[in-house]
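For reproducibility, we list the full input for the pantoyl adenylate complex.
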Amino acid sequence: MALELLKLPVDMRRACDAARARGESVGIVPTMGALHEGHLSLVREAKKRAAFVVVTVFVNPTQFGPSEDFGRYPRDLPGDMAKVASAGATAVFAPEASAMYPPGEETRVKVGSLSVPLCGQYRPGHFEGVATVVAKLFVLAGASVAVFGRKDYQQLAIVRRLATDLLFPVEVVGHPIVREADGLALSSRNAYLSAEERQKALALSKGLTAAARLFAAGERDATLLRDAAFALLKPAATSIDYVDVADPDELTPHGNGAVGERTLLAMAARIGVTRLIDNMVLGEEPPPLATK
Ligand code: PAJ
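The corresponding predicted structure, in tokenized form, follows.
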């Protein structure tokens, strides 16, 4: 079946209503486009769980800070359409900003404590913008399942909380991070990296792997785990926003004490001018690179 392109919110709602009327379950995969294999794995996951899968492609202005990359964020709708069609999507929703944010709009979804640590410290208002657009997309789609990547671990936690708090009847599924063979987590922002920066960017996944090795050997000291990742990241990064060891559910950073049997190690750093993030849950997931 041909992939349907939906531009208006009203068309999105109608297409999803029609699918449900035919007895099809609706799945949604929200994205900002410039799609890569990481996004496509979310689409395939959604397709396993729903008959009608809509991929949203919308570079959401309200989640970008004034000095961030909204203007130059990569955009390629025709390329994205071809990719999601081959991954099994039924429809793409690619609205204009003026349709998602009508003239005079002034309503935001306020996010609680989950938005305070980690990226929340460095991107004020970011998660409020994410939560607002995700809530709008959930309302339009009435989806029974929504798939998000663990690449944006904090975002996933916030979306789960949002779905529970706002009573959206949607199951939020978290999908593992898809990586290049050398460990680099796929990201639309990797397109900004020069060849030299691309090499330096491996420091993020190498840092996770180093900490994972320590953890596997029995280390539970938060400072030592953090330091192991930091030491690899430091020489490669232009600047480091954070390397934190945190509770995997509440996201509150561990101080300097001992961590539990499941602990989130998350980082954000600039390689050149490009801000990259990466994370893993120690004790729950395999490290990005096979350990010796
Ligand atoms: P975007 O950065 O385009 O990511 C869309 C989805 O793809 C997110 O759920 C993200 O976690 C997932 N993703 C990105 N890279 C991945 C990888 N390497 N492996 C697995 N999943 C990956 O996140 C956003 O857009 C926006 O904030 C959005 C939720 C669409 C709201 O505007």
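Residues 30-32, 38-39, 42, 60, 63, 130, 133-134, 148-149, 151-152, 155, 175, 177-178, 185-188 surround pantoyl adenylate (CB under 6 Å). The mean pLDDT is 97. Both points were considered when choosing residues for closer inspection.
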